[in-house]
Amino acid sequence: MEDQDFLLFIKKVKDYTSIDLSQYKEAQMKRRLTTLRMKKGYNTFVSFFDAMTKDKDLFYEFLDRMTINVSEFWRNPNRWQVLEKTFFPEMLRKNKRLKCWSAACSTGEEPYTLAMILAELNVLNDAHLLATDIDDGALAKAKNGIYSDRSVRDVPSNYLKKYYKQENLTFLISDELKKGIRFQKQNLLTDTFDTQFDLIVCRNVMIYFTEEAKHLLYQKFANALKPGGILFVGSTEQIFSPGQYQLETAETFFYRKKE
To answer: Which one has a higher pLDDT value, 171 or 24?
Structure first.
């Protein structure tokens, strides 16, 4: 009965939101959502779903729990340095108007990190920088651009001084960076992607998906890159046999679309 209850919940969520929970690792997802359901006092997933459709705050909490909005600026700093010092200069030698996408951007730390680097290279105003996520709540936080001191602990000091305004324990993103990013809602699994990107950043998201969903996404990302474009993934998301997606390893956690 419990399995039937969860399967019906998955179906109802898909019909209501187009989010297909069956594409996520079931044990991980079910455990996380069971904790939330019980905390809120619902005996079944179906009753929990019914409540979600009537209570916007509960629905956003469900999305937040499902998408694990945990992010930091300059996460794995040495990888961002490779992007800044190696790949962006390569791209800019060919084209000064870069097209970049932060996929599953959560609360905005990664697209703002991208924006900082592009601003330092004096190309942010000419760049097309897209940031997408499935969670309206996360996107709202990203657009607000207000962060805790914990989120900024890896930001280089010169960037911290230049692109943030500190107010007690919070840090406010500069208007220059906000203007440089277009935030948009998107379901990675079901929506079509734009094309001809120089760079796609999608980090620490794939670990929540099934192998079938990962395969689908890597192919969609590869199709969205221009020849020679770069896909930047998370530290636990090495792509085995990248050649099946017309990709090749360019550096640790960086993949280049074959030209």
So the answer is: 171
**Assigned token pair, 168:** 């007690």
The pLDDT score that the predictor gives to residue 206 is 86
Higher-scoring residue by pLDDT: 222, 57: 222
Give 87's DSSP letter: I
Nearest C-alpha neighbor of 154 from the set 81, 236, 86: 81
pTM across the whole model: 0.79
In one-letter notation, the amino acid at residue 207 is I
Q: In this structure, how many other beta carbons lie within 10 angstroms of the beta carbon of residue 151?
A: 21
Q: What percent of the chain has pLDDT over 70?
A: 96
C-alpha–C-alpha distance, residues 95 and 256, integer Å: 16
Q: How far apart are CA 58 and CA 78, in angstroms?
A: 38
Per-residue pLDDT, 27: 83
- The rounded distance, in Å, linking the Cα atoms of 9 and 24 is 14
CA-only gyration radius of the chain, Å: 19
Rounded distance, CA 28 to CA 40, Å?
A: 19
